[in-house]
């Protein structure tokens, strides 16, 4: 019995045929392999490759159990904005009154948006975090939407329900899909719950992309089936998915997005299989495996987990410039391959390899093939490590160039492999790909470097041996339930799904369990991700196809209508830009904000810069500024320019009235049940109505850190009143009692919370600010754990005395420094130090992150280890003297505990840590709250505590807190170590300096 695997790349199409009864032999059952050029019509390339391996192996075609194909064809259509292959998509949100704040397609690049954007419908439906319905489905609404979609000439629909991960009984999305197709049978609908987990916008984006390529995917898969028919293959057809498992062709035609990135995964799985890793005594439990796939132009590196599957990318994944949430392998690509150009620069003899390449012209342009371009392949031939082409022609390559090029190849691969390490365990590297010949040296930090047999066809072998999976990504409410029983039930659901997808019930096992508690919730809502895998079931000599007649001949009557498509140039859309990234194409160094007569009028560029800076000031918490930035940018796009403005704190009169409004609740809810944008306004209006306030003169942020640092801008546009350049924290803190005026005795009451359904609740009196927090939190839970909130407005005199000044400006300058450093390739911390006091506390690599949820907060600890001398080149580092950091290289680890926000930074002994990581204590504290601690990634953007993970190279900075937090014993008690139960005194990083003012620096006075 035989299986055929095919992998379609951008340059080559690989095929392999395996004898499943000889998988334990030295050849691993591989009977034949083939590599052929990928054709414009991919079906012809597949047909050629499969025909070749069938011819080489001379097997009985009736004994071929299945064909499995991995292809980049679908993702290329998105990445290239190919209008021939993409369809317009209507979006139906099941959300009740919510989510209107950020419409669908908001962060799509303009080119892609112009191709796929269709009408949007906000209908009743969706769930709350506790499983309650936001509202019941309304069939009449769905019928009207279906009719409007058809009238718009659209066939494809994305159905997106709030908290679809909770909808295990298919009460909303699936029922809506059925009703749409009942009312209009010609519609094709995709449910978001089949695509991704929590996070409405990223899940919706992935669902839209899936719907956009449905027509193209169905046509392409028909072509695959036609190719099989032409080769007299009547076995089932499967496609390989992003996670290395199989999906039958019929399902792949409905969920093509799950096959977007299967190429690197096929290489990884094939390499591990060919090297026998995970078989016999070659266990994966005590080592980490990194697969290095070197092609002609690029090298792809990915990690194999002990489960035998690739490490998945964290958080969101960008596809064609669109943030999406679905399972994708984490792949690092570098510009290094067999065709990489080799250059020697100047008298110093510095030799570099890549990133540019001669690509498919290798066999004509490279020296050993008669050309004049020195490539990596020429170097390895000149060194005597390989004989390729006319190898005598490489004898003229200078020895210094050979040595320098080999050293650069070695250095690039070592750095890339280190970035993909998942632990400190020994590393085994599997070297595959046609370009792998360019590595002839041992790699530092690698225990063994192996080239499996058939390494140049590992991708096709990986497709042939792929297994079948069942996966669930749901939210379970565990309060009052037996958690172990709930997990066991989830395991059974995943196993049953794998069996339903075609797995052998005797071979199914759970390979991944993730339990992710949701922060700020009190019902123990936990995201549960479970995956079960098993071998494809074989019975009576035939593979069992889950979908009847998946590729049988009578179905090919439909396939006969398959035809080639128009030339690529006819449909290619090249428009550039993205509403979510207004700084693209802007010279940040020369950009000037629009400040006239003491008023700063906010622009889209300002919004992106402030969002970056608010992330830094969020100190790990405050929620991501991304969604709030999108909301603000959309208001500007729709005519909010001119009303969204900022004035200096000093411009306030003593009797001016300033209001506050912010988001309050759980970020995990607000990222899913996105607001309609009315809840903050409703809370402000509720307080003002109670107090009889008819008008006010300014808007002040409760906290500048994180998403709430931008809430004031939509409020400014809504009321046509300016934002005051200040806030009540100077950072992010987890509770409302951390507002500076309240610490100093000014009233927070009445305090209102409101949702988007017309509900508002007000606390009129309470025994303490802490009690206000607990009462408000309970109300927030009842309202779905995400509300707008507003406290008592305060006078200009109070704001001038008890707010942290110029923090909107500070966020702008911080964001500007980071973006400017990226554009000019300068050190970003050096750039930050030029505009605000900052101390670089540490540069290193995260080696451990522990998390739990306590009292509704995400608590944990991050451990960072120093970089090696070679690793330091991967992340720029400032002069210690400039940033008043440590004068000698630090060998100790840095520990950072967090409660949403980062609380302290202290050194721990590596020896003590490795003896007992859980109990190792800091031996020297170098910074604590209320000073600000931020962890920055290699691009200068702040990392929130949920984003921390092993292997990230980071820099830790500390910034001094405003004296309002440090000059008073009560303020230091509320904002310092005691409040967070840290066993240490406050440790400052330096003297506070008032941030610069954008209004003051850029003001233009009218003549």
TrEMBL record:
Residues 203-384 form the Hydantoinase A/oxoprolinase domain. Residues 606-763 form the S-Me-THD N-terminal domain. Signal peptide: none annotated. InterPro entries: ATPase_NBD, Hydant_A_N, Hydantoinase_A, Oxoprolinase-like, S-Me-THD-like_C, S-Me-THD_C_sf, S-Me-THD_N, S-Me-THD_N_sf. GO terms for molecular function: hydrolase activity. Residues 768-988 form the S-Me-THD-like C-terminal domain. Pfam families: Hydant_A_N, Hydantoinase_A, S-Me-THD_C, S-Me-THD_N. It comes from the Eukaryota. Residues 3-181 form the Hydantoinase/oxoprolinase N-terminal domain. Gene3D superfamilies: CV3147-like, CV3147-like domain. This is Hydantoinase/oxoprolinase. It comes from Phialophora macrospora. The lineage of its organism: Eukaryota, Fungi, Dikarya, Ascomycota, Pezizomycotina.
């Amino acid at each position: 019995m035989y299986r055929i695997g095919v992998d379609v790349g951008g340059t080559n199409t690989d095929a392999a045929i395996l004898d499943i009864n000889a998988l334990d032999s030295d050849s691993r059952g591989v009977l034949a392999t083939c590599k052929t050029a990928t054709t414009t019509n991919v079906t012809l390339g597949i047909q050629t490759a499969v025909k070749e391996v069938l011819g080489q192996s001379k097997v009985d075609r009736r004994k071929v159990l299945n064909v499995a194909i991995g292809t980049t064809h679908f993702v290329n259509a998105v990445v290239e904005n190919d209008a021939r292959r993409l369809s317009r998509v209507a979006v139906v949100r099941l959300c009740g009154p919510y989510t209107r704040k950020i419409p669908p397609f908001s962060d799509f690049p303009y080119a892609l948006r112009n191709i796929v954007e269709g009408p949007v419908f906000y209908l009743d439906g969706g769930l709350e975090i506790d499983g309650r319905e936001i509202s019941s489905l309304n069939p009449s609404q769905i019928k009207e939407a279906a009719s409007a979609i058809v009238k718009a000439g659209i066939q494809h629909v994305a159905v997106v329900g709030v908290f679809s991960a909770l909808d295990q009984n298919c009460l909303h999305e699936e029922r809506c899909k059925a009703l749409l197709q009942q009312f209009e049978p010609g519609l094709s609908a995709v449910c978001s719950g089949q695509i991704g987990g929590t996070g409405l916008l990223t899940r919706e984006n992935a669902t839209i992309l899936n719907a956009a390529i449905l027509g193209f995917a169905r046509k392409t898969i028909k072509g695959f089936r036609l190719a099989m028919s032409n080769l007299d293959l009547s076995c089932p057809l499967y496609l390989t998915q992003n996670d290395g498992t199989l999906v039958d062709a019929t399902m792949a035609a409905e969920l093509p997005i799950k096959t977007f990135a299967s190429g690197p995964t096929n290489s990884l799985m094939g390499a591990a299989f060919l090297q026998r890793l995970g078989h016999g005594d070659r266990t994966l439990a005590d080592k980490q495996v990194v697969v290095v796939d070197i092609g002609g132009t690029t090298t792809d590196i990915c990690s194999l987990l002990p489960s035998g599957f690739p490490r998945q990318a964290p958080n969101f994944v960008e596809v064609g410039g669109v943030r999406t949430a679905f399972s994708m392998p984490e792949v690092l690509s570098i510009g290094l391959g067999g065709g990489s150009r080799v250059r020697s620069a100047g008298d110093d003899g510095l030799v570099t390899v890549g990133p540019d390449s001669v690509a498919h012209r290798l066999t004509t342009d490279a020296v050993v093939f008669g050309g004049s371009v020195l490539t990596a392949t020429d170097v390895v031939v000149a060194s005597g490590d390989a004989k390729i082409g006319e190898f005598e022609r490489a004898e003229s390559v200078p020895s210094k160039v050979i040595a320098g090029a080999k050293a650069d190849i070695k250095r690039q691969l070592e750095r890339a492999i280190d970035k993909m390490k998942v632990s400190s365990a020994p590393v085994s590297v599997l070297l595959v790909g046609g370009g792998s010949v360019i590595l002839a040296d041992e790699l530092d930090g690698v225990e063994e470097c192996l080239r499996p047999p058939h390494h140049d066809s590992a991708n096709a072998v990986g497709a042939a041996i792929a297994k079948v999976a069942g996966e669930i990504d749901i939210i379970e409410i565990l309060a009052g339930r037996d958690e172990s029983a709930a997990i066991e039930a989830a395991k059974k659901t995943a196993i049953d799904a794998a069996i339903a997808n075609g797995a052998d019930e005797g071979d199914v096992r759970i390979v991944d369990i993730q339990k992710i508690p949701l922060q700020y919730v009190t019902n123990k809502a936990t995201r549960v991700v479970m995956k079960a895998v098993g071998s494809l079931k074989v019975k009576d000599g035939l593979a069992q196809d889950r979908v009847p007649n998946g590729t049988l001949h009578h179905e090919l009557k439909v396939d006969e209508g398959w035809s080639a498509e128009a030339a690529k140039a006819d449909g290619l859309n090249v428009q550039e830009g993205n509403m979510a990234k207004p700084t693209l194409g802007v010279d940040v160094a020369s950009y000037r904000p629009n400040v006239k007569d003491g008023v700063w009028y906010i622009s889209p560029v300002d919004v992106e810069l402030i969002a970056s800076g608010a992330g830094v000031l969020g100190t790990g918490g405050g929620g991501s500024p991304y969604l709030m930035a999108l909301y603000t940018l959309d208001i500007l796009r729709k005519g909010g320019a001119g009303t969204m403005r900022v004035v200096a704190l000093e411009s306030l009169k003593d009797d001016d009235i300033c209001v506050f409004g912010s988001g309050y609740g759980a970020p995990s809810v607000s990222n899913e049940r996105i607001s309609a944008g009315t809840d903050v306004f409703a809370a402000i209006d509720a307080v003002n109505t109670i107090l009889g306030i008819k008008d006010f003169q300014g808007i002040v942020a409760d906290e500048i850190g994180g998403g709430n640092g931008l809430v004031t801008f939509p409020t400014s546009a809504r009321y046509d009143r300016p934002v005051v350049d200040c806030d009540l924290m100077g950072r992010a803190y987890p509770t409302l009692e951390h507002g500076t005026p309240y610490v100093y005795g000014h009233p927070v009451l009445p305090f209102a919370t409101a949702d988007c359904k017309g509900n508002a609740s007000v606390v009129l009196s309470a025994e303490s600010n802490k009690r206000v927090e607990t009462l408000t939190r309970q109300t927030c839970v009842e309202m779905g754990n995400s509300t707008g909130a507003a406290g008592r407005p305060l006078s200009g005199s109070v704001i001038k005395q008890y707010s942290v000044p110029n923090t909107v400006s500070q966020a702008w300058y911080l964001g500007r420094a980071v973006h400017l450093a990226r554009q000019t390739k300068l050190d970003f911390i050096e750039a930050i130090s030029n505009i605000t006091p900052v101390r670089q506390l540490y540069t290193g690599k995260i080696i451990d992150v522990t998390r739990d949820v306590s009292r509704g907060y995400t608590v944990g600890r991050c451990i960072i280890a120093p970089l090696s001398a070679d690793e330091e080149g991967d992340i720029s580092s400032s002069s210690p003297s400039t940033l008043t950091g440590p004068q000698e290289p630090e060998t100790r680890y840095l520990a950072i505990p967090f409660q949403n926000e980062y609380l302290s930074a202290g050194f721990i002994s590596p020896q003590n840590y490795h003896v007992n990581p859980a109990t190792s204590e800091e031996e020297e504290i170098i910074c604590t709250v209320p000073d600000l601690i931020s962890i920055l990634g290699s691009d200068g953007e702040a990392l929130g505590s949920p984003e921390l993970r092993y292997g990230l190279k980071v820099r830790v900075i500390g910034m001094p807190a405003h004296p309002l937090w440090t000059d008073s014993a009560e303020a230091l008690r509320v904002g310092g170590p005691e409040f967070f139960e840290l066993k240490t005194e406050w440790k400052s990083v330096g003297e506070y300096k008032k941030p610069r003012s954008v209004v003051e620096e850029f003001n233009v006075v009218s003549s």
